[in-house]
Specification:
2 helices; two-stranded antiparallel sheet; alpha+beta
């Protein structure tokens, strides 16, 4: 085994373990928030609205045509319009 890759994996694993411990402790602290605070946040009005213009969800269709590739063989080429 290569010494450099072994040491990189060893220190990388130790760093990932340390960062994972910090992340899980923060998640646990957030989960232990009082129930009243969490329900109050759900009842607040949204500060923004998501606007989707009239062309956002335009129906599309696939159009295929037969062309010749660079070797002269016929191939089907499809695109969405």
């Amino acid at each position: 085994m290569d010494r450099r890759s072994f040491l990189t994996a060893l220190f990388g694993g130790a760093a990932a373990t340390a960062i994972g411990g910090v992340a899980t402790s923060q998640i646990a602290a957030a989960a232990s928030a009082p129930l009243l605070e969490r329900t109050a946040l759900d009842e607040l009005e949204a500060e923004f609205t998501q606007y989707r213009g009239p062309r956002h969800r335009r129906p599309r269709r696939q159009v295929c045509e037969v062309r010749r590739n660079r070797f002269g063989r016929r191939v089907r080429v499809c695109r969405w319009i």
